[in-house]
Design goal:
Two copies of one chain form a homodimer.
Chain A: H1 3-13, H2 21-31, H3 37-49, E1 54-56, E2 64-66, E3 72-76, E4 82-85, H4 91-98, E5 102-111, H5 114-119
Parallel strand pairs in A: 3-5
Antiparallel strand pairs in A: 1-2, 3-4
Chain A binds a DNA duplex through α3.
DNA sequence: TAATAATATTAGAATAATTCTAAATTTAAG
DNA sequence: CTTAAATTTAGAATTATTCTAATATTATTA
């Protein structure tokens, strides 16, 4: 692991935000002012490939990156905002169906967030 | 519903592929040769907003569109290919936790597909 | 009908996220 | 050290999608 890869991993894993590549770039610059955006993308891709972080694609904007510690996501269908939530772990039924090929799962639950609910 | 919206809805709902906007465009052109790509995007967005179809964002390429009939997805983490699968419906626990704000959920299960497994 | 308003479509420009390229730098290995 | 391999870099290129503003279609009402 290079210093950049390591630091990016730390940034993602110590954050409860759902950071975009630009967010990570801004954060990484604090430690390494001369780092380039391409390096951020390179390392985010590498970390996703090795399964150390995960990508959350929501369609309407830039991809976000998240720690892998088991949790699910709420997505507001009005404003698109993401929130963490943890539902019961459903690994077992998936694993028993897919066997060793199973890696992990990603559960997004769509809802109307409190703010949007208020606005009507 | 306009003729385009209606036809796009039909295309998505009668397909078991996971079509991109370009795929839909190509298909729609068979019925309406002069239609434009912007119309496809407009109507795909409208159909997603009203919940008549759903968007599947996988991060590494263009968004895909899918019928809403209850089913889940397998995603190969090597090649990214999508496949349909249906696991037990977990609506109830989600609904009992979120109440009326709950809309629907989207479950992606990551695995290594048979082809990539073969290649090693 | 005809007139008006509202909505949808269009082509192409604009934008934004991400990847690519090829050179330069850093790290690792012999 | 020297060489090879991997990483980083800046900026160009690509790609998906949205935006714009003009045109066409559809719906509404007189």
């Amino acid at each position: 692991m290079t210093r950049y890869e390591k630091k990016i991993y730390e940034i993602i894993n110590s954050s409860y935000d759902h950071m975009t590549a630009e967010d990570v770039f801004a954060e990484l610059k604090k430690a390494f002012p001369s780092v380039s955006l391409a390096t951020v993308y390179n390392n985010l891709n590498k970390l996703c490939d090795t399964g150390l972080i995960r990508r959350i694609s929501c369609g309407d904007s830039a991809d976000r990156y998240d720690r892998t510690a088991r949790h699910d996501h709420l997505v507001c269908r009005k404003c698109g905002k993401l929130a963490d939530i943890t539902f019961d772990d459903i690994t077992q039924p998936l694993k028993s169906r897919l066997g060793e090929d199973f890696l992990y799962y990603d559960l997004k639950v769509y809802y109307i967030c409190p703010e949007c609910r208020k606005k009507g």
